Amino acid sequence: MPQGKPEYVPDDGLTTRARRNRPLVIVHTGPGKGKSTAAFGLALRAWNQGWPIGVFQFVKSAKWRIGEENALLALGRLHAETGEGGPVFWSKMGEGWSWIQRPGSEADHEADAREGWEQIKRDLAAETHRLYVLDEFTYPMKWGWVDVEDVIAALRDRPGNQHVVITGRDADPRLVEFADLVTEMGKVRHPMDRGQKGQKGIEW
């Protein structure tokens, strides 16, 4: 395919510019590594364009400090001090990894995840951010904590020009069908297959 030229041009009455600027729902799923990393890469590009960024990290401990969080929050402080780039908001909700003991019950984690989704809906309605990273959001949907149809309806009806990236394994087929861009990351080989864990702070 020639660079920059789509294989198919729909007869929708839109100009090339209007079609290019349509807001997207993007899903990164599959058993391979790199789903969140790719989403945060998009967030870096969005920050450079001056877009307001909202990161909502599901089912991870609020105590975990990942490199992308530190980097993006530092960029958010840079924006606040100099006006460069865009503002960054980062929120964690739920601690639901089933193989690690976490404080609180499953009901507590479910309530956290649902409230997180309700906040996202409020932000979408208010057009608070230009790019949303909903990290590991496929899991609350898989576990029934958040209704998939409600997610699709809110994303379909969102106003303005808000892009949404959802990451996590086992994306619901209905979400996959709805999304504009879906990437499935498959594992070919991993160091853990040979008993090697990721380096601290890197987590391959």
From TrEMBL:
Its EC number is 2.5.1.17. It holds the Pfam family CobA_CobO_BtuR. Coiled coil: none annotated. It is an enzyme of class 2 (transferase). One of its GO terms (molecular function) is corrinoid adenosyltransferase activity. Keywords: Transferase. SUPFAM superfamilies: P-loop containing nucleoside triphosphate hydrolases. This is Cob(I)yrinic acid a,c-diamide adenosyltransferase. It comes from Actinomadura fibrosa.
